[in-house]
Amino acid sequence: MAIDRPWLPAGALLCNALIWGVSWWPFRQLEARGLHPLWATALIYLVAVFAITLWRRESWRQLLRAPALWVLVLAAGTTNATFNWSVTIGDVVRVVLLFYLMPLWAVLLARLLLREALTAGAGLRVVLALAGAAIVLQPEGGGWPLPRTLPEWLGVVGGFSFALNNVMLRREAHQPEAARALAMFLGGALVAGVLAAGLAAQGRVPALPPPAPGWLAGGAALAIAFLAGNLALQYGAARLPAHVTAVIMVSEVLFAAGSAVLLGAGTLNPTLLLGGALIVGATLLSARG
Length: 289
Fold this sequence. Notes:
Elements: H1 7-21, H2 24-32, H3 37-55, H4 58-64, H5 69-89, H6 92-99, H7 102-113, H8 120-137, H9 150-171, H10 177-201, H11 213-237, H12 242-249, H13 251-262, H14 270-287
Helix pairs in contact: 1-11, 1-13, 2-5, 3-5, 3-10, 3-11, 4-10, 5-6, 5-9, 5-10, 6-9, 6-13, 7-8, 7-9, 8-14, 12-14
């Protein structure tokens, strides 16, 4: 498909990456106003579910007739719940790098679910991702390089679920676009909402606060931003080759790291930069196929 202005789809993808890369800041502002990121995620995606229901009512019937799409519901919901929670409470740079261990999980899931062969290139991506993760997670006093804090575990789980999300999108590419979009939005609302309600009942997260202008306005603005980002992603990804889309989307790491360092929500040091370079390198290699 010829593109008269090729910078438009690239700009749309950069817009999406920017929205996700700096989303940690509004989530922290909402938490400061009493709205936990899990509740915020659930409410934001409920708005998206309402919007897509008005736009494509038949998407509900399509979703209910496709059991495999409920795996996408779970994967997309887990991705959003864990990512938004982790960047709200943890070191943004470390969390985003652990989230981008997707090449490792994608290789394994593609083999399991898509029956893709394990090639030398795939093996290289796994080695790079594992080496990067080991460097990022290596404790200062020595020991096994494993996640040690809740944000780190959430980042790893989020990256795995995002890889599963992407693999399921490829596997179910024959399903109607509206049904796949509804599955992803519904997952964001359901998983975050169930987690929030369950943890609130145990007293581990605050209950949903009463309506207040501060968090209602902020939540509405963030919902609009995420909807705009999703539309931008669909516009750009439909007009550019997949490997170009993947490379541009890695800019989310730069947006997240840069904004976090500037605003004091993350730190950079030579060790973290080395581990991050390996993880990003694995992601860029996966973009080339």
